[in-house]
Specification:
By secondary structure, this protein is α/β, with parallel strands linked by helices. It has helices at 42-53, 55-60, 73-83, 96-101, 142-152; strands at residues 12-14, 20-22, 30-35, 63-69, 88-91, 104-109, 112-117, 120-124, 130-134. The protein has one domain: 3-Layer(aba) Sandwich (Glutaredoxin).
Length: 153
């Protein structure tokens, strides 16, 4: 399990439009990776809109925000367009990013166990170290809390 102070796993982040970046490719900037279960669901939409609404503030703090889910690039494009989002979304098609960050977990719903993405956020400093981790994220107020932590770096 990753902890604060660990070197952030250097994973490739596939973005819509065929472009990509990586954690090491973002070195020199503060990077926020937030993991969420699925595009266009109520909680995930609210979270994406909250991060998007603060996009200028994150940029002023020198921070890049990238959301990660297992949705396809095409689904991300629709999600971004439908809600006018101002952030990048990465597709974790093979689950390797979630595995590296420990966000692919067993969940239960109505007594049924299944595997899914844990809503979690990682604040990675300019040197590629994990400065802060939020697990089991509650959406309300979360983007503001992450922004305050990024500004404090």
């Amino acid at each position: 399990m990753l902890k604060e102070g660990d070197k952030a796993p250097d994973v490739k982040l596939d973005l819509p439009g065929g472009s990509s970046t990586s954690v090491s490719g973002e070195t020199g900037k503060t990077l926020i990776l937030y993991f969420y279960p699925k595009d266009d669901t109520p909680g995930c939409t609210t979270e994406a809109q909250a991060f998007s609404a603060l996009a200028d503030d994150f940029a002023a703090a020198g921070a890049t925000v990238i959301g990660v889910s297992k949705d396809s690039a095409a689904r991300h494009v629709k999600f971004i367009g439908k809600h006018g989002l101002k952030l990048r979304l990465a597709s974790d098609n093979d689950g390797s990013i979630c595995e590296a960050y420990g966000t692919w977990i067993e969940k239960t719903l109505y007594g049924r166990a299944y595997m899914g993405i844990d809503r979690a956020t990682f604040l990675i400093d300019k040197d590629g170290q994990i400065a802060r981790i939020w697990r089991k994220v509650k959406v309300k107020g979360h983007a503001e809390e992450v922004l305050a932590a990024a500004q404090a770096l």
